[in-house]
Amino acid sequence: MLNYLLGRSNFHDKVQVINCIKDFEKFDNSELLEDASALLIFKNDTQQCWLVFTNLRVYFVIDDTEKSILKALWARDKDNLISDGRVNLHLKEEKHSKETGKILFGNMNNSVLYTYSLFKGVGIAGTILSLMNKHFVDDSLNRNY
Q1: CB-based burial of residue 45 (10 Å sphere; 0-12 exposed, 13-18 middle, 19+ buried)?
Q2: Shortest CA distance to 141 belongs to which of 133, 8, 81?
Q3: Percent helix, strand, coil in the chain (nearest 5)?
Q4: DSSP conformation letters of 43-101
């Protein structure tokens, strides 16, 4: 009720977050959305940010209830992240505030905020690299057989 009175909607669910990447200009119909993964990396009262991993790309998606936006803001192609059959991306974590950190994506000049409490006991960089391996390396190996 409070969100309604403030003119805010609720956050979208994981399936809606994954499906919103279809509106991104780089999206290709050969991306397997049924196998995609969505990782919530940032959350506050009005905004959530996700990384969505498909067999071809990783997308950065924003879900903003105050502005009623669910949108992929950028994507990075698998081909630019893999070399010699391995993920080749340097991720650097930096402190931003008491509740949030910043993760920098190699030399792509992209950094995003992440919420520490979403990654208790696990590192965000390791989680991202693991999902990239799952979707970009392991998945392509399985398709070759």
Answers
A1: exposed
A2: 133
A3: 30, 35, 35
A4: E-SSEEEEEEE-SSEEEEEEEETTTTEEEEEEEEEGGGTEETTEE---EEEEE-SSSEE
Domain ranges of the chain: 2-143
Give the alpha-carbon dihedral of 134, 74, 114, 128, to 10 degrees: 10
Q: Which two tokens stand for residue 63?
A: 């879900």
**Quick one: which of 55, 90, 92 has its CA closest to 75?**
55
Give SS3 for 31: coil
Tokens of 41: 């990396």
| 55-111 pLDDT per residue, tens | 999 999 999 999 999 999 999 999 999 888 899 888 999 999 999 999 998 776 678
SS3 1: coil
Tell me the whole-structure pTM to 2 decimals. Answer: 0.88
- The Cα–Cα gap between 71 and 81 comes to 22
